[in-house]
Give the backbone structure.
Amino acid sequence: MIHRVEEDTKPVVAILTMHDSERQFRGNRQNFHEIIKTGKDKGYLVYVVTVRDLKLKADTIRGFISNGDPHTWEQRMFPLPQVIYNRIPYREDEIKPRVRRKIKQCILHPHIEIYNPFFFNKRKLITWLCKSQLTRKWAPITKKLKGLPSLYDMIRRCSYLYLKPEEGKAGQGIMRLKYQKSKPMPYRLQIQNNKNSITYKSASLERVWGRICKETKGAPYIIQQGIELTAVHGRAFDLRLLVQKSDLGVWGVTGIGARMAGTRSITTHVPRGGTIEDPEKLLPSLFGSEETEVILNKVRNAAVHIAKQIEWGCRYKLGEMSMDLGLDTSGGLWFFEANSRPMKFDEPSIRKRSLERIFDYCDYLIEKQVN
Ligand SMILES: Nc1ncnc2c1ncn2[C@@H]1O[C@H](COP(=O)(O)OP(=O)(O)O)[C@@H](O)[C@H]1O
Ligand SMILES: [Mg+2]
């Protein structure tokens, strides 16, 4: 049953997701619940809306609100939102024409602000960074995987490569290729497989190519210069940052976490055996405390420049993104990717700040609309 319209003069934010025939709507309910709760504490009316229910010409629309816990949801009619926080969880959903159309309508709507309209593509991210003198230096050499000649070209330039799906996530489909001249089987291809990685050794790149094709299944891939990441006890780690806009609409770093690869993994993802580390503890053991401060300042500064450049490149308004950055063995900084729909950070302090900052940026967007 649909209850009465929520009569409220509070600013209204809708979390956008997809309809689901079994669960009513898709996405991480715990996350949505925490966003709603934080918004409420900040004086907002926040609800979840599906693309299907988001009728931009209606006076009121159907939405969902959590009722004290993330498992109990109530549907009600709500006023149209001033801000839409896009949390459509899957690319497959977002590329559907009707979904894209609805998002475009939101972008063009005179009284609605939508931030983070689309997912990023790894190849485009690197292209955008390479368009600025300032950010180019953090981008590993990256090419589109276009047949064996493209792979041959890249392995001649860099004897260590990462192959990644342009639109992958959570380590899916990632491979690593090394050429070690002195070895009898000089090509080593490692394929990420759940928590482990399988290694194929080969004397010829043609053979390796056959195996790569089996893995890519025709999906668009990039070939990227492999970075020798700093490691602790043989486990590489990288930095995961959350970058969000403030109530002044200015980019800032909300928090920096570190993720250390599992012993048999070629990525640092926690579901693949990676662990969560505190960079403030991890880095001093490697670089000393003074150098750590220098590095972390460099990281924060780079992240803000990178966020600005990505926003410029994608031509849409963004409010937040997470970023994977690597430190090489000499402390040099590298950009791997950014996500426009950041996952929840497990570090409680980052998590708390991240929720609050979602609404700081909403404050900014709404203020801008009013004035
Ligand atoms: N060029 C690279 N050199 C070294 N390590 C890399 C490179 N690219 C990715 N990685 C490692 O693999 C992880 C996953 O890569 P990423 O581009 O973030 O893809 P995903 O979308 O699957 O998370 C990174 O966090 C990093 O640890
Ligand atoms: Mg990643």
